[in-house]
Amino acid sequence: VNLILLEPAEVSERAAESPGSRVSLSGPRANHLLKVLKVAPGSEVRVGILDGPCGIGTVQSIVDGTVALHCAFEATVPSPPRVDLLLALPRPKVMRRLWAQIAALGVGQIILTNAERVERNYFDTHVLTPECYGPLLIDGLQQARDTRRPQVSIHKQFKVLIEDHLDTLFPSGLRLLAEPAATKPVAAIVRESGDDRILLAIGPEGGWNRFETALLRAHGFQSGGMGPRTLRTDTACVALLAIVHDARINVR
Amino acid sequence: VNLILLEPAEVSERAAESPGSRVSLSGPRANHLLKVLKVAPGSEVRVGILDGPCGIGTVQSIVDGTVALHCAFEATVPSPPRVDLLLALPRPKVMRRLWAQIAALGVGQIILTNAERVERNYFDTHVLTPECYGPLLIDGLQQARDTRRPQVSIHKQFKVLIEDHLDTLFPSGLRLLAEPAATKPVAAIVRESGDDRILLAIGPEGGWNRFETALLRAHGFQSGGMGPRTLRTDTACVALLAIVHDARINVR
């Protein structure tokens, strides 16, 4: 954990706007401060308000495992990452591991979808409940020192998603379809694009079927290659998000 | 599995050199052929000889779960990936997941090392035995359609490794140290480098200590930045290997 994330409700409204505010932590975050970071009164730690600004917390007191912090927050809120992810739902064990990794790498929204090669029962898992993925996303944000929680939407009907909802979810920007066989690499397309936002589509193990690929292309997706090696969904997801972010950073 | 890997001993020597050779498979690979790929006599599947050529296997017969293939191998053997990895040993659970991912992404050798922030007991795990990691590496190769198994070496003494063994393990090429704080991105250094091989060093959670960083620099490592987000070792490993491979592909 490289940043302690606070819920807005933990920071009083008046205080969040003023230069300093008091926050009391107990539970896992207090344990982390005490056992891992080994804080003492006077220690400074990085803090952030969920979907709000980052700041610095100074330890005021430690009483019975409760850590009192005096926090000073920055005036500006970090922008959400400009990369979004359209992902054919992987099996629950893989999805469970991906939540924190995706949040750490940085995405504005995670759009999970069905596809022919996604098993229907994948949608019944608790891994898709906010109770499960919320804390995992926060783990990833705390690792990466970000406060902006990815928006999550889950779609059981691929065609309805692409035809009826995609333009609302992702109104403008580069739509990029990662395909093992495409000749032009993903990074080259990103570098040449002037779009402010990117939506990266990653298919199921075994790939999108022909209908799905055609529908994505008909809705503006360009195909980008992933190199000669075929990767599993989880590896591909991390690899492609890293490449897309890297290609953007090197442009600007 | 996108390629069925065969041990050289499973293919008779004479046969491997001739245009066709017979191979009999039972066990997990036969199960995969029958249950997942649903082969029948006449089906063609991608095959490869470990550290040897790729080829095409044609199913001749299926008897009692044993699949007989007639294999035709290519004349040339794929080159080993030109990226090597120097990795501070992560905790066993993470290392266990990384083996296949590293092999799938493609590395010539995996050099695992101790560091101050690596716990000593990580070295006692069965995850570091060839019996454990061998099959995981093969899983990754079969996923990525590669036959070249990464060389693995394990070093409990960081200083001895860097001072006494590194020049033998990695005699020439770009030595690259991934550091969150470095200003020049890893990809930019790779693109500007004319070196044929790259050794990518990734530290433990919490980073290399000052002595370790200084020793790596004294032995020719250049620092490359990883962007503003701090990643966990496993995510960083996949992300950086993807970025380095991508930067190389886009140069050539």
Describe the protein's topology.
The structure is a homodimer of 252-residue chains.
Chain A: E1 4-6, H1 13-17, E2 21-25, H2 28-36, E3 44-49, E4 54-63, E5 66-73, E6 83-88, H3 92-105, E7 109-113, H4 130-144, E8 151-155, H5 158-169, E9 174-179, H6 186-192, E10 198-202, H7 210-218, E11 222-225, H8 233-251
In what range is the share of β-strand residues of chain A? 25-35%
The value of Rg of chain A in angstroms is 20 Å
The assembly state of the depicted protein chains is homodimer
Secondary structure tally: strands of chain A: 11
Order of helices and strands of chain A: EHEHEEEEHEHEHEHEHEH
Structural class computed from helices and strand pairing of chain A: alpha/beta
Cα(first) to Cα(last) distance of chain A is: 28 Å
Secondary structure: helix percent of chain A? 25-40%
Number of helices of chain A: 8
Largest interface: pair, residues per side: A-B, 33 and 33 residues
Notable characteristics:
homodimer; 252 residues; alpha/beta; six-stranded parallel β-sheet; five-stranded mixed β-sheet; 8 helices; elongated
